[in-house]
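Lab meeting prep.
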Amino acid sequence: MNERDLRFLLRRRRFLKEVACGIGMMGLADLLAADGRTADTANPLAPKKPHFPGKAKNVIFMFMEGAPSQMDLYDPKPALQKYAGQPLPDSLASQLRLAFTKKDAKILPSPRVFRPHGQSGIEFSDYIPHIASCADDLCLVRSMQTDAFNHHPGQALLFTGSIQLGRPTMGAWVLYGLGSESKNLPGFVVLSSGVGTSGGASNFSCGFMPSHYQGTLFRNSGDPILYLSNPEGVSAETQRETLDLIGDLNREHLSETGDQEIASRIANYELAWRMQSAAPELADLSSEPKHIREMYGLDDPVTRQFATNCILARRLVERGVRFVLMMDASWDQHTYLNRDLKKNCDRTDKPAAALIKDLKQRGLLESTLVVWGGEFGRTPIVEIRNSADPENAGRDHHPLAYSMWLAGGGIRGGQVIGKTDELGFNVVEDPVHVHDLQATILHCLGFDHTRLTYRHMGRDFRLTDVHGEVVQKMLA
């Protein structure tokens, strides 16, 4: 090849890069726009319109990791006393999928006392008197079902619609569909309490979506977010100049590649800059009045941690954050059920009820959907790991029937959905699968769950996978 031919080839390559690729990108942008997939690179989390006007604008999901025992909290089963100490009938035992317990284990009655509450007369356990006081605002679902009987798969199914890891979680889907109304805080925030969850970060991952849909984990002490404060000796002016330089380089790279992860990086850097002033103010609860502190139990060492997260959840919603995931662990009472379940309820009952009441008195409950529950339920049969200790009794995992509740944001309170058999083993009326719950949550936000999709590797994915029906009885 001579010098003349080389120069011609270089000019042609330059043309293809600067012109032909530009034409291709224009065509790609047009196709993406037709499919509703273009992103505002200046603000990829800008508010978006749902498919139809939804009654909920925000979600607070109180996730009780480990699976609370429904027959000791929400679903009274006096027949457990009648059959106490007997094995399950073979017809039921054959359906069991157990993590640890043998199928010939004996039926374990609940010592809890259930009483009706509110005008609706819904029965609640004596372990949760504060939540019970909100009975007329709650839609209690006693007929939940799931496909997984171990924690990590169960949490994955609840939050991503699949037991396969790597898919976007519920918060990411909501943020993808609606964007965020907060300019200075993440649109999807995670608050943790207790001892940590089995699923961990996979419960708030963005999966194969761009990383600006990822949940942001706030800490319980110190800076709400790691590295939020500038290092010693770095001024705000220096920080701003550094971000401007990095932003210029990233925008140049974005213009060449069109890679949306670079757009996410630009947006995340700018959001982090704004959060340096917004997050400390958010986390400073000293301005909360005395009656609010007392209502939540903020100054009580037993309730302080969960109360702090409940108040933060309210403050986040007030500031436009779209999805708040509160992960509290662990409710996995394989042993010492009565003792440890009481500890969990003592920590969380008062703050959870206070959140409902506080949102309501501020006029926020109508636009905020609150969800409480775990990844599955517990068995009516006993699990014994130390036969020498009579207080050691617990319950194993049970995916076939369990309870959750919802409030606000398009949900009709003061009602019970579904019914289980006399042992609380199977659903006998109005089953609600995890996918149905997901479809209903999206409906309250203004989405047809079959149309909220994201294309990845040649197929359209959705939160409800290929399942799910909106539970009309739940809706206001």
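Slide two material, second protein:
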Amino acid sequence: MAVAADVHVIDHPLVQHKLTLLRRKETSTNSFRRLLSELSMLLAYEVTRDMPMHEVDIETPLEPMRSRLIDGKKTVFVSILRAGAGILDGMLQVIPGARIAHIGLYRDPKTLVAVEYYFKVPADMDGRDAIVVDPMLATGNSAVAAVDRIKETRPRSIRFVCLLAAPEGLAHFRAAHPDVPVYTAAIDRQLDAQGYILPGLGDAGDRLFGTK
């Protein structure tokens, strides 16, 4: 499929290598967690590539200088529960000063519609940069619902980050939120009848937490 300018497929060799290991059905829960954290750190470098910076005065061992920093306190990672926690942990290794928001959503097994059960964000979202994280962009229902809610808080910017996207979910998300760029490691072939990504990697939450 043709990839729109606001959809960023991160095809760095390290990202693709670790994604292949993550996809394998024999990958253990422990290895899945480690790989997901490592992948999330690599994705964080790309999603923050054009983040605003500011200059500060510092001293090196040799002399004073002006240098640049990302204001981590202006960044909010929005984790879509429950599987978003796996990406959140890795990204916090890169930007430990970021604030954290949580959106609890579950997919109704019959309708595949996202149902919200929890919502907690920092009180002062205005002026912050929100990065919404979830391993899978499958039907797109959860991602659309999450960004709908985050837009109500009026952040300065919103980005969406996932490991895998299905063409159907990507089309749904872009139709609902054409102003929100998507960062993903791969766009897979299609969804199955149950709304799972093919070839995919299975249920990310179950593999991350060792549940069924």
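Talking points for slide two:
The two ends are 32 Å apart (CA to CA).
The first strand starts at residue 7 and ends at 9.
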